[in-house]
Amino acid sequence: MKKWKWPKDRRYGWYRGNRQRSFSDEQWHGYNDAGPSHRAPQRDNRPAHASSPPASSSSSNSNSGVPELPGFYFDPEKNRYFRLLPGHNNCNPLTKDQLQEKEREKQRHQRLAEDEKTTKKAPRTGLNTSLLLQKRHLGLLPENSYCRLVHEVKVSGMRRHKLEIQSTDNSNPNTDNFRIIVGDSVCERVFTVNDVSHGGCKYGIMNFSSGSRGSLSVEMCDNLYFTNRKVNSICWASVNYPDSHVLLCLVGAADTPGCVSLLPASLFSNSNPDQPGMLCSFKISTAWSCAWCLNPQFDKTFSTGLSRRVIVKDAETGRTQTYGVGTDVLAQHFALRVPVLFNGCRSGEIFSIDLRQRGRRDHSWKAKRFHHESAITSVRVLQDENYLLAADMLGQIKMWDVRVTKPVLEYKGHNNEHAYLPIHVNEHEGLLLAVGQDCYTRLWSLKDGHLLRTIPSPHPAANDMIPSVVFSSNLGGSRGLPGLLMAVRHDLYYFPYNTDYQEGGELCL
Predict the structure, then answer these.
(1) 290 Cβ contact partners less than 8 Å away, ≥ 6 residues apart
(2) Could you tell me which of 178, 281, 436, 453 has the fewest CB atoms within 10 Å of its CB?
């Protein structure tokens, strides 16, 4: 017989003594109808785990260098391809959405496990309280910078505690999912909106108080109100005294038109429910947003953002001024020192209205105008009213200098694609907070935009289970406790600033 000579050059795909196909040959012949039997190509005779680092199921092909095959996904742990579509027997279908959701859940559990650790990673390299105190004593850190950096250290040390909501009616525990929580100016009371399973929503007020041993207690008022209409926007209103009322934008349902309601907070009080005070309902339909003016010149004035209109109304006299715009107004916020209203629109435009000027058809009443690339979901005027924060549906959060209408700082990492999500500012602590569409709560340094902390939701992420948060230096009033309040599903969680927080009378280590 004639002896066959094998080529010695491995470029031809086969060589004697080791029948291994080349990478290009494996890539070409890897796709056939076998599906689950396919394995990834192995290079340099290394074991499969050596060439495939752990990665997400949805993006493993791009991260590990494994070729992407249409209709299949690669599992790096098992080192093989699996069919994305149902097999011939239509059993165990797999989709990219399911794989991505599985990977997100895995990452969420990893972050929750990291949050449970007693020692956590500092938000910045080399940042700790002892080093900061040493620099402060040496005069290397000014007072403002020292306080701000200490707050960053405290943020990294916050741990989750579940709060029990007390009520006189213990036979009827809260089983409806939280949708919105909004704290008053001193965070002694928090207005809540819960979705009701049979449709509509209910709303009430939770009262917070801090105990002598450093614990936080929550009491829900029994006078809960039910409505068959959804709540679009909420803000506290100071009609008779600070935070005496709550302003709500209610969406129309069936034959019931939408409206804007001004409810006295005393309605939600167990002590004196018989004297509610001024109760008003304004026939303003399709209201997307609302804001209350605290400037002394217009102290009884509120605004609502509608489709193609902005309405400014005096709550006592009913005097109304209308400004026509070409898009939906999704976010509003008043400046404090001057009666100027800032508006964020679906078109991405942000413009201001000076209430001392009357509206004109040529839009010359727009004092300032600047733009984002997507719909605006939230606007917040800072104490230095030359600066404004704005968030949009592309996940961008920017700080604008109103004087020159240019962004001066951007806060990266926020996740949003189409949701109506607010941002929260605490200038005393120097923090900016936002809950993303991925259900993660992120905290940034307000001064330089550094991402300090990313807090996962205690429950699996879902579009209808996005947490609602309140952050305050004094939860429960002037003698309250500092920290973050998070409401998700029907549970309420507290992330204290101080590490010696006591829960149920015991020290939480």
Answers:
(1) 233, 234, 235, 247, 248, 249, 260, 302, 303, 304, 305, 332
(2) 281
